[in-house]
Every structure is written in C-alpha cells, then in structure tokens.
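Quick one, T. Sequence first:
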Amino acid sequence: MTEEDRPGGSAPWAPLEPGTDAPARRPRPLSPRSDQAGAPPAPLPWHTSAVWVPKAGDQRTGPLPLHPMTLSDILDGAFKLLKANWRAALLIAGAFAVPVDIALAFARRNVYGNRGLLEVLNNPSSQPRSNVGSQYEALFVTLLVGSLVTFFVGAALSKVIAASYLGGEETAGSALRSTAQRVAPFLTAWLLVHLLEVIAFPLCFFPGLVVMTIFVAVAPAMSIEGLGPIRAMRRSAALLWPRLFPVMGVVVLCGVVVYFVVNALGTIPATAALIIGPRTAWPLLGLASILGSLVGTPIVVIVATLLYFDGRIRQEGFDLQLMADDLARRPAT
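Structure tokens:
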C-alpha cells in the first residue's frame, strides 16, 4: 500500500465512540498529532506495508501492540511510553509526590530518635528506647498516603499515556487540570477500592490480591472514559476478571520490579540519613522517597493503563473496531 492509499484526515489509532457500556457523557477525544494545524498526520512507517496491520503509538513511541498483549508486550510498551513521556511523567508524579514525601519525612523525623548509626555503634548505651508502636504507625500512614498518591498520579498520567498510546498527545498541565476538577470522584473511588482491600486481605492474602488485581484499572477507566467511581470499578472488573491470573502475574511482577527500583534509588540518601541521624537529616529521607516516587509510580501507572487497553482489546475487540473504523474512513475507489 502506498502513501496515496492512506485515508485522509484520520489516523488508524483514532479512538472510537464509546460502546454500549460507556457513560452518557462522552470523554474528550484524544486527537492524533499533526505537524501543522488542520493537516492530517503523515502515515507512519509500519502503516505502509503491503499487508496493513494496525499498530498503536506515534513517531515518539514507535509501534505499540494493538493486539492481545503478552507480558513482554506490556513491559516493552511500558518502557517505550515512559521514554516518550518522561517529562510529563516527572511533572505529574512530582506534583503529587514531592510535597507529600517531604511532609511525611518531616513528620517521621522523631520516630527513630536522632542518634546516628555511627554514634549508636560507638556508644551502645546511648541508643534510645525503640518505640515499636510509633514505627508501625508511621509505616501504616506512609503506605496509606503512598497509595493515595499513586492513585491520583494514575488518574492524571493515564490520560497522557492513553493519548500517547493512541497516537495523540496530552500535556501534563491539561491532565492535572482535568484531575483537579474531579478530586471528589477520584477520592471516592480510592476509598472504596482500599476499603474492599482492607476487608479482603485479613481474611486471606489471596482474596486481597484478587481485589487489588481486578481494580487495578479503575483510575485509567475513570480518566479515559470519564466514568464515576462505581462504574469505573465495574468496568475494571469486567475487563480484567476473565484473565485474572495472567493479570495478577503482571501486577505482582510489576510490584517486584518497582520495589527493587525504588529501593535502589533511595538506598544512598536513606543510608546517609540513618548515619547522620533522622531528626537532622530528614530531608535525605524525603529525597529517598521522592526518587522512588518519580520513577516507580509512573511505571505502575503505565502498566495499569496497558492492562486496561489489553482488556478492551480482548473483551471488546477494540483493535478490530479501530480497523473497521479505518476502513470506513477510506475513500471509495
């Protein structure tokens, strides 16, 4: 197929109208990029082969899988999307994580006392009495606030990632403003999801993991489709439940990768803070958390967004809908 045969004024990755289960209020369309205002985007190299196979993405990302995704597809796609949108990822993650991590580090500065590690080793009698209750309370608050930050970063960043995946572009500022306009629905969804997790995890670890898995696409569904909290939870469960165990494997693997990345980035400043003394060096504790949040949180969000699209491709034939839409837009010969 030559470039003259390509459809004019549209791109094969343009979004479709919402399906029957989409909300009445249509989300703002994600427009394909163009080099000039009003000009159709030039066909990408992988769209000009003799046998046309649709691919998502654009010139920045390269071809992204627009078919049922394997684990390698998701990991490769996550890397490409993070590389193409690293500025927006840093801005959005930083907007939420930096103030929160600094506040948490300041609040925890007295939990472990102000004795540096070297001082404790040289003079064991100077070691303060450990307050185990305060340490567990600080850990609980840190995890709770961290999950809230991750959810809101997901609400904003998934809009950017979805636009990039579909061949368009969304700015960090626009995504943040859109999220700020819907703080209450996003907060409600976060509360409902984590309430179910709190109920499920004490019963047995596995039910809690199931709840966490089937609701991993709640933030992308709310952001991309404009759904409310309850409908987004139903939407996420409907897309991910049919492939519960494969999705669970991706979620667990992603969590393990992020855990090691976060710890690797935060080891040096956190160790320095413990050597100096947390009460004095609490900014270093904040820096350790910030470094992890700026890299780890976007990875989690991008994987969740790709799982959302993979669910739509598998359950709704989203890739076939895009192919049919592209064929309908081609001029008659």
